[in-house]
Amino acid sequence: MRGRVFIIGLGLIGGSLALSIKKLHQDSVLVGYDINDEQARLGKMLGVVDETVSSIKEGAETADLILIAAPVNETGRILASLPKMNLKNNVIISDAGSTKKEIVKMAAGLKESGNVFIGGHPMAGSHKSGVQAAKAILFENAFYLLTPEAHIPEEAIATLQRWLAGTNARFITVTPDEHDHLTGVISHFPHIIAASLVHQAEKSSESQKLIPRLAAGGFRDITRIASSSPEMWRDILIHNNDVLLSLLEDWQVEMERVKSLLQMADKDDIFSYFLGAKQFRDELPQKQKGAIPAFYDLFVDVPDYPGVISEITGYLAKEKISITNISIRETREEINGVLVISFQTEEDRDRAMDCIQNHTNFDQTIGM
Ligand SMILES: NC(=O)c1ccc[n+]([C@@H]2O[C@H](COP(=O)([O-])OP(=O)(O)OC[C@H]3O[C@@H](n4cnc5c(N)ncnc54)[C@H](O)[C@@H]3O)[C@@H](O)[C@H]2O)c1
Ligand SMILES: O=C(O)C(=O)C[C@]1(C(=O)O)C=C[C@@H](O)C=C1
């Protein structure tokens, strides 16, 4: 497709949307604006956008597609300011915010001015922020929730989906209320729990100095999302306040249930509690991104000698297997760390496993 695409908020999500649009629609012109000049400058320098502008008005008035990827509170403010501008007649406006009820309300002015606003939420992301973390494949296989109101023509929804086809995401239409309930359960509330687990560990660490050093493995996995942007999560909690308060009550009931399991100390009941959770989680689709992202991790039990990491990455490079991340996971002191190599696809991970097996006798296992 041709036209000018204006991205407001050039961070992780805005940048990733820009890259995925440009990948498919090479004749389009990607224009970026960020309230933080440094992010805008970086976005241009990294080639995430073709041009930057110095105000929302400047970018919006010539745009064919406007995508707002700022924190949700700011998104509301920006939406309220757009009707005062001289927008193109057939411009399509959408956003990427993690909440929808409040945002759709804030877009009421656009309905009155006869503009098309379609709420959007690509359901994949990361705890990392900023345009430097943006990537074109971020939304591959993820769900992309849309919340068009009844007056929005089907043709406009189809046009937006054509613009966003390079995300390779799967579009689903829901109402703003449904959206906020669904994401409350599988995204927003888990972020509260992750943050609260970290607070609990921090409190205990005041008297138990070993806690930070031991907080590895499972604790790191379950609390990864507590490293997300506090600004983004502050705004999400304020927008989805009612749903989250009700989920918190359900959670308190659930914790009472756990308390009574512990008090009764009945082996069978405790076993069933974990078994039920394991069964439901194991049946969740694994290959799609979303609340539980697809991991293509390979764990390699490496002996401790200098150069072992470059040796392994050298084997992989020779076979042109690209890796997305590499880290050492140390769960116990005085025991060799495990090398964790992450891949973008399952195929890359399987090829890497064969490659390492051909060159070494290191034990390997895949992350589930
Ligand atoms: N991070 C995720 O996992 C994820 C996933 C899906 C959707 N979202 C949603 O996408 C939006 C962006 O999140 P992100 O992760 O890209 O955050 P980010 O911090 O990486 O980027 C947000 C950018 O918006 C800019 N910004 C803030 N106020 C602005 C304003 N008034 N005008 C222009 N720019 C402004 C910031 O400077 C920043 O560069 C949020 O609404 C978030 O809820 C996030
Ligand atoms: O993978 C992560 O770090 C995320 O938290 C991504 C995540 C999620 O909860 O699934 C976070 C918020 C977004 O609205 C959508 C995706």
TrEMBL record:
Residues 297-368 form the ACT domain. It catalyses: prephenate + NAD(+) = 3-(4-hydroxyphenyl)pyruvate + CO2 + NADH. InterPro entries: 6-PGluconate_DH-like_C_sf, ACT-like_dom_sf, ACT_dom, NAD(P)-bd_dom_sf, PDH_C, PDH_N, Preph/Arog_dehydrog, Prephen_DH. Signal peptide: none annotated. Its EC number is 1.3.1.12. It comes from the Bacteria. GO terms for molecular function: prephenate dehydrogenase (NAD+) activity. Keywords: Amino-acid biosynthesis, Aromatic amino acid biosynthesis, NAD, Oxidoreductase, Tyrosine biosynthesis. Pathway: Amino-acid biosynthesis; L-tyrosine biosynthesis; (4-hydroxyphenyl)pyruvate from prephenate (NAD(+) route): step 1/1. Belongs to the prephenate/arogenate dehydrogenase family. This is Prephenate dehydrogenase. It comes from Cytobacillus purgationiresistens. The lineage of its organism: Bacteria, Bacillati, Bacillota, Bacilli, Bacillales.
